[in-house]
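Quick one, tokens below. Sequence please?
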């Protein structure tokens, strides 16, 4: 049981660091978007930002999956 608790805590801590990294990247990407396209305060700009980030996330996830499969 002790081993299982340690494994779960490690997974939760890793996920927490992942969330912090995601938030940091979100801020950086928003700043880049704002510098490139001006104010990101409009709904249209926010939707474009969300779509672009989603497409990049999907692409990166696919690439990571392919690398992971090759490693196996």
């Amino acid at each position: 049981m002790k081993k299982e608790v340690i494994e779960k805590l490690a997974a939760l801590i890793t996920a927490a660091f992942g969330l912090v990294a995601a938030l940091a990247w979100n801020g950086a990407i928003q700043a880049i978007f704002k510098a490139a396209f001006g104010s990101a305060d409009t709904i249209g700009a926010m939707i474009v930002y969300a779509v672009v980030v989603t497409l990049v996330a999907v692409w990166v996830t696919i690439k990571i999956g392919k690398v992971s499969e090759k490693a196996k």
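The mean pLDDT is 84. Residues 2-37 form the longest helix (36 residues).
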